[in-house]
Structures are given as structure tokens and as C-alpha cells.
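Lab notebook, bench 4. Still working through the backlog of constructs that have no structural model yet. Next entry is a single chain of 437 residues. Request: give me the C-alpha cells for it.
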Amino acid sequence: MSDRAYSAPRFRRSALLLFLFGLAAPVIGAAQEGVTVVTLDEAIALALEHDPSYVQADRSAYSARAQLRQAQLSWLPSVNVSSAYGNSSNERFDQTTGRLVSENYSAQLSASYEIFSGGRRFAEQSSASATLRAAEARRSARWFETVLATKRTFYAAAAAAELVESAKQRLARAQRQLEFAETRLELGTATRSDVLRADLEVGNAELALLEAEAALHNARLELGRRTGEGREVQPAAGALPNVAPPLPPAEELAREAERGSPAALAAGADWRARAALVRASYGNYLPSVRLTGGYDWASFEFPPKDRSWSLRVIATLPIFNGWQREASVAQARAQEEIARASAADAAIGARVSAESAAREIETAEHRVRIAERAVELAREDLRVQEERYQIGNATILDLQASQVALTEAEIEWVSARQELGISVARLEAVLGRALER
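Model written out:
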């Protein structure tokens, strides 16, 4: 088979691919139009609305607020009103009136107030207040965890979109290189091996494009799940950051995280809540005093005419209850010790995480600059190699080596910017605040 005969089928295959792509372009365009495009802030807002973990943390804080309100209102007396009506087919003799009656009416108003509870109400209110602070801190921590997870997914989808564009450019370059090789083959300045190698690179580029598009599809679906859309969601253009916000010294960030990290605040509040429960458990050794009173109406006529009132003061001192008080105190003290150790560990962990995240941001920012410079150099190198190959001063291997170097540099640049965005989000989650841009 002659070289010209070899290039003819290749030309027909390229023409067929272009024709099929022209037929599929409207369908692809329509599919792209159906993809929802969101910004990072929009994605975060949607994720906070649909993330079950954050919704649970928010409802837990609401429940803790209701428990605190209940503890505060325990200082008020309890008041009850009751009434009753009775009727029977058999009459009975009423000793008060000396009559036979079948109906009776009654009503009662009663009130009760705990005069002394052995400090239990103080401890319960203190514990409920600390529990609320812990729930609010956990909600704040969950908020930043949701934001971090959303940014991870958002940046992954943005990086996947850029990798698809990089794969398309690789395919276009490979097709151009195949044209160079076929032209040189026709001129007799290249061998058939050059065309075969160039054709192989086109196939590899097509495969890489298919893999990149599949990864983009999965990343879009994951972002759609994260935002509650249930379909593909695409980040807005230019989503990946190129630079990090200015940061204070690492030691200052560590001190800030130790004091204000949501995880550390939640652990500290939980420790205080457990300490309050320990104090409340000792109240079982003290007596309780309760005042009760009531006013009754009762009669076989309506409205009831017979009236009476009652007033009682009840004091209770538990002497022995099967070691339940001692077990309650021991359990409360054990839980307090666990919470204390967790609070200390959370503070140290926040400090370490802040320093680590700051170092990661610094490294990622340097990596972005180096990768961006590498892309510029690789593009220039490929341009030079293409010119050298066209005039016969470079081999197809030199050309493909430059092509591979450019592809790797583009992937590294996308990966570096993705990691930079995630590192910034990780530090914000540790500090419990957004960094100033």
C-alpha cells in the first residue's frame, strides 16, 4: 500500500467523524443548556438548605433552646383546673341532703409550687444554658463542615470542566500534529512511522477526552446532589482561585483557632454542661419542699354549691434509694472527665489544624505559581517543536514529548488551583469565620 493510499482512508475517517460531530452538536448543545449553572455562594446556600447533617444540628439547637426555656419556667408554680360530671341509672342516697340523686357535678382548681429543690433547678438551668451553647457551637461547626464539603464538590466540578477543555485542546493539537505528519509523508520528508505515532496520539487524546467528560458528568451530578437539585449542576466560569487571601502569622492563626474554633467551643460548652449535671446530681442528697393548695366545688346540682379548700406543705428527704444517687453522681463525674479531656483535645486539635491549613495554603499558592509558569513554558516549547518538526529539524517523538509535557502541566495547574481553594476552605472551617479576600 502506498503512502498516499494510506492517507486516503484516514481522510475519509476524519471527514466521517466531523460529519457525525456536526449531527450531534445540536443535541450536545441542548444537553449543556439543561445544566444549571451556580456560583459558589449559591451552591453553599442550597447545600445549607438541603444538607441533613446541618438541618439536624440546627434543629438540635432549636430543641436545646426549648429545654432552656423549660428550665427557666420551672421557677413558676404549676396550676391545674379540672371538672367532672357523673350520671348513673341507679340513684344513690346523698347523706348531706338526705335525697336520692343520680347526677353529680364537681370542679377543682389546684396549684403547686416547689419552695426548695436542693439546688436542682439552679443546676438544671445552668446545664440547659451550657447545652444550648454547645448545640449552637455544634451547629456553627456543622455549618462550616457543610461549607467545606460543598466547596470540595464545587471545586471538583470546576476542575473537571477545565480538564475537559484541556483534553479537547490536547485532541486538537494531536489532530494538528497528525496533519503535519501526513503532509510531511506526502512530501517524502517523514516516514509512515511518524503518521502511525501521530494517529496513536489522536486515539489516546480521544480516550482522555471521553474519560474527562465522564468525570465531569459524575462531578456535576455530585454537585447537584449536594445542592439538592437532583440533576447536573455546573460551577460558574472562573470558579477555581488563583491566589489566596492574605493571612496573619501562623502562630496568630493558631491562637485564634484555639479560642474560637467551632469544634473547640462545642467541646468546651459540652464540658460545662457535664459539670452542671454533676452539681445537679448532688441535689438528690438534699430535701425538697413543695407547697400545694386547691379549691373544690361539688354537688348533685349545677352549678355546684358545696365548696372546700385545702393547703399542704410536703417535705421529702430521701434516706436510701438503693444506691441510685451514688451511681448517678459517679456516672455524671465520669462523663465530665470525658468531656474535659475532649475539650482539651479539641483545643489542641484546632491549633494544630490551623497551623497545618496555613502551611497548606502557602504551599498550594507557590504550587499554583509554579504550575502556571510551567504551562507557559510548555506551550512555548510545543510551539517551537511544531515549527521544528514542520521544517524537519525535530522528530515526531520530540513533538509528542512536548505535547505530553503541556498536557501534564495543564493538569497540574488545575489541580494546584483546586487544592488552593480547598486549603482556604479548610482553614475557614477551623477558624469558624470566612477569610477576608
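Notes after review: The radius of gyration is 38 Å. Confidence is low (pLDDT under 50) at residues 1-32. Flag for follow-up if needed.
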